[in-house]
Design brief:
Largest sheet: 18 strands, antiparallel
Structural class: alpha+beta
Radius of gyration: 28 Å
Amino acid sequence: MKPTRIILGLAGCVWFYLDHKNFVHYLAGKQTLEGIPTIEQVKPNFEVPKNNDFESKVDKEIKEIEDLLPKLQRKYISEKTTFTGPTMIDMHGEVVPNGVGQLDEFDKKRKTISTWLKGNLSGPTKIQTKINDKERIEKYIYDNGVKGDYFVTYYEDGRRCEGSLTCYKCTFPDDSFLLERVDKNNNKLESYYYDKEGYLRIKKDLKYPSLAGSGVWYFEDGRKYEGEMVDGDPHGIGRIQDRYGDIIYEGEFENGDFPIWNSAIIRSAGILMCFMGSLFL
């Protein structure tokens, strides 16, 4: 029984040393912790457009329309839709909005305040949609039915996004923020997510619109994932390193998960094997 324990102990010690030599070097002062890069160190290679007057301009004109609503007539223009404001009969014989007012779509739990021109949105627009007892507010400027490129949206989860339809910034309730650019010509999405201190947490380079590609994910405990992604989650071939640069796992990932074998849990078994075997050396 003793030879078996001796072999087990030696195998565990070798396993522990080979798998954790980077940690040993760190303790000896020969290796430093790998830091999480800041926005100053890793900046997006694009700049989100900024229109400081956009929201105030939209809000001002929407407020003027809201003040007029009590004086306007409300009528059904379809079974599930009403419009408060002037209407007209279009070339198809249908009643459509034509002027300032509010469109209520009961089946979609949505109301739109804007100006209409022969049934088309035309001017500053505010769209409010009820989603799971919360509200999403979208602000655009339309030109005869064509949505302008700039927008401001308040999402039901607390995000506030602003920018162009292809390059924007989203700020979350905890002050972390996301910078993204969509390049439709090259079918590409670039994404950078930073925490409230400005440290990079997730960087993604994905195909658009499939959202498959590669990226880097920095975890709060110092671990780092680098490899393939789908929908922003680790999926495909990649690897996870601990904060000392030691590889914890390298191989196949599926929807953000990786097999328990070859993980830090199993690697730590080397420590136990080494300890148990050494008791009988």
